[in-house]
Amino acid sequence: MNLSVDTPARPPDPDLRAVAIGLGSNLGPRFAQLREAARRLTEDTLVDARFSRVYETVPAYGLRQPPYLNACCVGWTRRDPGGLLATLKDLESEAGRDPRAPRFASRPLDLDILLYADEVMSTPRLTIPHPALPERAFVLVPLAEIAGAWRHPALRRTISELAAAVDPVGIQVTHLRLREAREAHEP
Length: 187
Description:
By secondary structure, this protein is of the alpha+beta class. It contains four helices and eight strands. The strands form two sheets. Strands 1, 2, 3, 4, 5 and 8 form a six-stranded antiparallel sheet that branches. The protein has a two-stranded antiparallel ribbon with strand order 6-7. The longest helix has 15 residues, at 30-44. It is globular, with a radius of gyration of 15 Å. 40% of the residues are buried.
C-alpha cells in the first residue's frame, strides 16, 4: 500500500504495514518524553518513520489541564495491531503513565494508533481507525502535514479533508522537531 505522495514508498518487504501514530504529553518534561518515544519507535518498531512538527494544544473537551505537546508519525511496521498496541502501552508505562488513571487525565505520554494500513477493526482493547480521529484537530492537523492524502478506510475521506472540517483553534505549531531533538529545547 503506497499511502500517498506525502509518505515514503513502501519498502520491498511484504510483511511491513503502514501505520500512523499520535504522540502527546502534558505532564513533566513534555518534549523530552515525546523525543524519547520517537527515538524508541524508530529504533525497534517503525521503518522509514516521518514525524510532523510538534504542536502545542489546549486540552480536549474543555478539561482544565496543562497544555499538551502533540505530534504524529507515519511509517511501516512488522508488528500486528495487537503487538503494536502492546509496544505503545509499554512506552507509556515507562514514561510514568498510570493505566488506572481516569480516561482523560493528564499524562506524561499518550501514544495512539490512528491508522493501520487500510484496516477497520474493533476489539475490546483496540479500534482502528482511532474512533475519535475525525473530530480531533490536535491529531488531524499534524497528521495532515505528513500524510494528507491517506484515506480514512471507513469514511473514505483524506486526512486533509478531515483536517479541513475541524476547528483548529487552540493548536499552535512550535519550533520543536522530534528528528532534530539534540539542539531543541522546550520553551
